[in-house]
Amino acid sequence: MAETATTRRSRITPEREAELYEAVLDLLREVGYDSLTMDAVATRTRSSKATLYRQWGGKAELVARAIRHHKPVDPSAIDTGSLRGDFQALSHRQDDCRMEQDSALMRVLGTAAHTNPELLTALREWLIEPETAEMRRMVQRAVDRGEVRADNPAIDYVMHMIIGAFVARTLIDEEPPTQAFITSYINAVVIPALSA
């Protein structure tokens, strides 16, 4: 499927693709996933609906890829030489305002994914699985350096812990996630769990 998507995408310049993704995210923030339509995206971006379907196949893939494109952090580009340093670099790659916006957007999509299997599939393919693989590579480097035991059971839950921090911050503290909170959480929860 990824090869087909790449072939479809090649007709649009990277600049135009970025514009389309930003418009999709703006619409998501304005109306939510369920009310977002390909007609609205086509109107907002001055594209034809046929072009959008040809390039992305449907709303779910377009939204998932817009989120992926929007991510300010590429874990594969981070290697500070220590696990703590890698996590700190990850948490400092977006400012508090962007973190709050992204957290709100992910809550909207998380809710929508419960009733939209196509969205859940697209999010897994374009966002969750690639990010989980990158996180595993980051932790594997720490294992190779001797910072983390290879048999540490917490390795399988790193993404759960990170995502949990974002969700719990809003639900429990009624505050948006911030760099300071995420850094504190990583130092108090993630690093000790992996170092145990």
Mean of residue pLDDT values: 88
Helical proportion, percent range: over 70%
What pattern of helices and strands is seen along the backbone?
A: HHHHHHHHHH
User: How many helices does DSSP assign?
Assistant: 10
Care to describe what's here?
The chain has 196 residues and is mostly helical. The protein has helices spanning 2-9, 14-35, 38-45, 49-56, 59-70, 83-91, 96-113, 117-145, 158-173, 179-195. Helix 2 (14-35) packs antiparallel against helix 3, helix 2 crosses helix 5 and helix 6 (83-91) runs antiparallel to helix 10 (179-195). It is elongated, with a radius of gyration of 18 Å. The termini are far apart.
Q: Could you outline the blueprint of secondary structure elements for this entry?
A:
Layout lengths: L1 H8 L4 H22 L2 H8 L3 H8 L2 H12 L12 H9 L4 H18 L3 H29 L12 H16 L5 H17 L1
Helix pairs in contact: 2-3, 2-5, 2-7, 5-8, 6-10, 7-8, 9-10
Please name the defining characteristics of this protein.
196 residues, mainly alpha, 10 helices
Task: Provide a concise account of the structure shown.
This protein has 196 residues and is mostly helical.
